[in-house]
């Protein structure tokens, strides 16, 4: 019945738009992409040993803070501006710190000894940034407010743990890391895994997913920005599940966490529904939910109590209909997506098969 109500509501709303929907896979207007973020880790292996790669590595290092971190949303292939705020150069958000470390690791593995000291400082920064709760906050040193919460948002903590996992394993391109740091990385990952397990939300005693942020003290789901409420996340839960699935010889509690989250994601899908772009009555590009037989999508936020999708704009009022969110937020934030699809139809079944083979 809930699914029918959703689709009927979409049909009623969509009737007020003047043009046919287009694919929701089109690029969404957002912050302009920088050359750094799109190109840094995508070159052939041999390129990282080139003079050009070393020149760019030297510029990347110029952006490193005194504490050892790097900023987000910055073209690190361009020298930093003299008026850049150094307080913003210490984040794991949007690839901050983890991406530059991964880039420098590639040049070091290709023979760039001059970048080694900066890499070690950055790795030490990540290890120092792990909080007593086992998680990582968005910024370190801590800045207060929601920035200090355990940050799963946009896979920030997962990216840290992926890098530390590879460092601890001595995987390429991190084979050059000394054993002392590799051991610290392994210990940090182990503590992080415990935090992932502790923060998984149970509803009526059943394991479900995770919130995008969890309270640094209580580990409970927590607010972030005004339009990011305590909730179950249809996006961030996917990255956490994928990380847990990457662990070798997973313990029974890790397997249970993955199984519980996957079952919840299956149950949370919005069936026969898709996201499309349209032109509204004012001539603006807009996104709506529309019926599509056989399709399914997921909400970014689900109510912690009843498990239903919720939508919330800058007024921080929780709503049940995406079209009640202001146009600016509806088109500037991803409230729905297909994030779990490949996990559910391909990767999770393959992972379960490997567990069966090991048994």
Write a concise keyword list for the protein shown above.
4-stranded antiparallel β-sheet; alpha+beta; two-stranded antiparallel sheet; 11 helices; 359 residues; Glycosyltransferase; disordered N terminus; Pectate lyase; 12 strands
Characterise the protein shown here.
By secondary structure, the protein is an alpha+beta fold. It folds into 2 domains: 1-30 and 208-359, Alpha/alpha barrel (Glycosyltransferase); 33-199, Glycosyltransferase, CATH 1.50.10.20. The protein is built from 11 helices and 12 strands. It has helices at residues 2-14, 35-39, 51-62, 98-109, 116-129, 156-169, 179-199, 236-245, 252-268, 327-332, 341-358; strands at residues 22-23, 150-151, 202-203, 206-207, 213-214, 232-233, 270-279, 285-299, 301-302, 311-312, 318-319, 336-337. It has a 4-stranded antiparallel beta sheet. Helix 3 (51-62) runs antiparallel to helix 4 (98-109), helix 6 runs antiparallel to helix 7 and helix 8 (236-245) packs antiparallel against helix 9. The chain is globular. 40% of the residues are buried. Its EC number is 4.2.2.2.
